[in-house]
Specification:
Layout: H1 6-19, H2 29-63, H3 68-87, H4 90-110, E1 116-122, E2 126-128, E3 133-141, E4 150-156, E5 159-165, E6 173-180, E7 186-190, E8 194-198, E9 205-209, E10 214-219, H5 229-232, E11 239-245, E12 250-256, H6 268-274, E13 278-286, E14 289-294, H7 304-323, E15 327-332, E16 335-336, H8 342-351, H9 361-371, E17 377-382, H10 388-396, E18 403-409, E19 416-420, E20 423-428, H11 434-442
Parallel strand pairs: 2-10, 14-15, 14-17, 17-18, 18-20
Antiparallel strand pairs: 1-3, 3-6, 4-5, 4-8, 7-10, 8-9, 11-13, 12-13, 15-16, 19-20
């Protein structure tokens, strides 16, 4: 036995306590029990793993076939038989036999093997709210004998669709089309397709999985901002800074030539007039970097409609920024979203789950400033429950020189623009008005 095993350590500790001269033998009971439990766990671990493997491989597939009703009928049969034996009730014996016979007959409905080739095909795995999500199931008989009529189940989220298969000859293919409702933003797990065999009373239910599950992303609804992008990102020449550069697109001034300057920037007319080399000095520019602060604190929204509209507004602005090849960062109370591509951003927008929380839009704006220090345009997307004073506090955390706009969602309100100090507040009552209020912001 290895000297490092728990059993050896326990024996060594006991020997040390017994060998102490002149002192009564004593044990620290909790330590002894801890060592004993550790030793027992180590000794029984292999047997436990083997038992669990056998259970999952042999016992569980058999026991999982019995439904709750089936277990109830089986238990009732045993109890009735026991009562009949104990009290001599013939009626209890008869009822027990009847229940047991029903259980045995149910076994006949789930016996047998089926050989299917099943292909689950979703035409599109990403759709927007309101778009049609269509798919198909193609089932073929891959066996050498005809197959009796059967049923296939297709789980779609929390629901399940049932497809009835006719009697199929060898090699025959049966195809069914289905449509998935997309009324709400969600990630819907479609599949796996499973064949189900059950008796008429559903005492036993046997299912076999034929495909892997697939995720269907129902993206938030977005609106196109084509033509409005120039309204909220005006940087044809970039947004100027006070930093000077030797090469850029924004001309600033002329200065004396210094060895090492790029000769392509020599201004020859001035050089000829002053009789000394002069080079162009440029003002460094920076491309627009959008940062979107999207509050997912549901306490700040008057309704679920407002919350969904806020996600759609943020997604529309972000999608247009990505199309225009602008740098983009989107931040929520639960962290940043992926913005490498429009698909990644919309996928993460789809996964957003709102909840009441302590962190408000003001806290999120402060976090955004620390997370995206180089932002040039900041959008603060909030609900109607956010007050003007809170918006003022949120805008106060944005550095000077950074353009800050607040998009305040209020269902049914007319599109409007207002100013709170340097903050532009845009009121949005309908997603279709987003392009209008962005043009107002640019005016």
């Amino acid at each position: 036995m290895s000297s490092g095993t728990p059993l050896t350590r326990l024996a060594e500790r006991l020997r040390q306590r017994l060998r102490r001269p002149g002192r009564p033998t004593s044990f620290h009971v909790p330590a002894v029990w801890t060592e004993a439990a550790s030793t027992a766990g180590l000794a029984l671990a292999p047997a436990w793993h083997r038992t669990r493997g056998l259970w999952r491989r042999y016992a569980w597939p058999v026991l999982s076939v019995v439904s709750i009703l089936g277990w109830s009928v089986l238990a009732a049969s045993i109890l009735l038989w026991t009562a009949g034996q104990a009290f001599g009730w013939q009626e209890a014996h008869a009822a027990a036999i009847a229940a047991f016979v029903l259980f045995v007959i149910a076994i006949g409905f789930i016996l047998g093997r089926s050989s299917y080739g099943v292909v689950l095909d979703l035409a599109r795995t990403r759709v927007a709210v309101g778009d049609s999500a269509v798919g198909s199931i193609a089932v073929s008989n891959t066996s050498a004998r005809p197959l009796l009529p059967a049923a296939l189940e297709l789980p779609v989220g929390a629901a399940a669709a049932v497809f009835h298969l006719p009697r199929m000859k060898p090699g025959q293919v049966h195809e069914d089309l289905f449509t998935i409702p997309t009324a709400r933003r969600a990630v819907i797990v479609v599949g796996p397709v499973r064949s189900v065999r059950a008796d008429p009373l559903h005492l036993l239910r046997r299912q076999v999985l034929w495909t892997e599950p697939e995720d269907l992303y129902v993206h938030p609804r977005t609106v196109a901002l084509a033509g409005s992008a120039a309204g909220f990102i005006r940087d044809l020449e970039g947004m100027p800074t006070t930093d000077l550069s030797s090469a850029d697109v924004s001309f600033h001034a002329l200065r004396d030539y210094v060895p090492g300057d790029d000769r392509r920037h020599i201004h020859w007319k001035t050089t000829a007039r002053t009789n000394k080399l002069m080079v162009r000095q440029f003002e460094e520019t920076r491309r627009a970097h959008l940062a979107i602060s999207l509050s997912i604190n549901t306490d700040e929204y008057a309704s679920e409609q407002e919350f969904e509209m806020a996600i759609s507004a943020a997604a529309s602005i972000g999608r247009q920024a990505i199309r225009d090849q602008r740098e983009l960062d989107v931040l929520t109370q639960k962290g940043p979203l992926r913005c490498e591509t429009g698909r990644n951003m919309l996928d993460d927008m789809t996964r957003i789950v709102g909840a009441p929380m302590r962190r408000t839009a003001v806290d999120l704006a402060r976090t955004l400033t620390d997370t995206v220090p180089n932002a040039s345009v900041v959008f603060i997307v909030v609900g109607s429950n956010v007050t003007p004073s809170q918006l003022r506090s949120a805008a106060a955390s944005v550095p000077l020189g950074v353009r800050c706009l607040a998009v305040r969602l209020q269902a049914g309100a007319a599109p409007a623009r207002a100013n709170i100090a340097d903050l532009t507040v845009l009121t949005l009552g309908d997603l279709s008005d987003l392009a209008i209020i962005l043009r107002k912001a640019a005016a």
